[in-house]
Design brief:
Number of strands: 10
Domain ABC transporter: 6-238
InterPro entries: AAA+_ATPase, ABC_transporter-like_ATP-bd, BCAA_Transport_ATP-bd_LivF, P-loop_NTPase
Protein name: ABC transporter ATP-binding protein
Bound molecules: adenosine-5'-triphosphate
Pfam families: ABC_tran (PF00005)
Organism: Desulfosporosinus fructosivorans
Distance between the termini: 31 Å
């Protein structure tokens, strides 16, 4: 495992006066899969939105991508540097077909042979290839999740940020998402996932953090957290 691709130091995030993330520090190493676990409302989505400078969140602290600060960067600049996002609820457009979602997001990769492009997404996911002319929002939940992942991949990112990929999809699609995450790190893409689904997080990630009320209360290997029933109960209520 390489050096840090994403490093967050002492992050504090606010919606107006509401102080949501408190002194959050975390690292994703190059080609690592990291999960941030937490119950509803603990600040998981806010963490990803703070990294991407989305919405009206006041962010203090440092976000570094490959050692370079993103503190002053705009969302589109952050995306261009190689950080892609699969939002909670997918945020697809009714007016765009499946294919158009991929074409609009496509940014050529460094190597033509290895890049993610719409055709490669369709080869990997024949179920959305068969529906390429259909509006993205007319797909099933699982297919919309796959399209949202495909849309992120065709930007040829170095790291993928995923917000609750387990939400609204069947266990069969969950299994595919987990397999895909493993394939992606083998193919050069690091992963940061925020989840409340413990099983998905533990099957995807090598390391986990747990957020409670906007603070990191646990950091360790997925293997250790799987064995630590007491912390699971204390922090996640499972
Ligand atoms: N736009 C907003 N304005 C004000 N407060 C917000 C906003 N979005 C989220 N919050 C608050 O910030 C806190 C963290 O929310 P966040 O969505 O990050 O949690 P989460 O862990 O992702 O939960 P969920 O699993 O429900 O998405 C919550 O108390 C929430 O009510």
């Amino acid at each position: 495992m390489g050096e840090a691709i994403l490093k967050i130091n002492n992050l504090n995030s606010y919606y107006g006066k509401s102080h949501v993330l408190q002194e959050v520090s975390l690292t994703v190493n190059s080609l690592e899969r990291v999960a941030v676990l937490g119950r509803n409302g603990m600040g998981k989505s806010t963490l990803l939105k703070s990294i991407l400078r989305l919405q009206d969140i006041k962010v203090e602290g440092d976000v570094l991508f490959k050692g370079e600060t993103l503190n002053q960067a705009k969302t589109y600049e952050i995306a261009k540097k190689g950080i892609a996002y699969v939002p909670q609820g997918w945020l697809l457009f009714p007016s765009l077909s499946v294919e158009e979602h991929l074409l609009v997001a496509y940014r050529p990769g460094k190597s033509k042979a290895k890049e993610w492009n719409p055709e490669r997404i369709f080869e990997l996911f024949p179920e959305i290839a068969a529906r390429r002319k259909v509006s993205g929002t007319k797909l099933s939940g699982g297919e919309q999740q796959i399209l949202a992942i495909g849309r992120a991949l065709v930007s040829n990112p170095e790291i993928l940020l995923m917000d609750e990929p387990s939400e609204g999809i069947s266990t069969m699609v969950i299994d595919r998402v987990i397999d895909l995450c493993h394939q992606l790190t083998e193919q050069g893409i690091s992963i940061l996932i925020v989840e409340q689904n413990l099983e998905l997080a533990l099957r995807v990630a090598q390391r986990v953090y747990v957020l409670v009320n906007g603070r990191i209360v646990y950091e360790g290997t997925a293997e250790d957290f799987r064995a630590d029933k007491e912390s699971q109960h204390q922090f996640l209520g499972v």
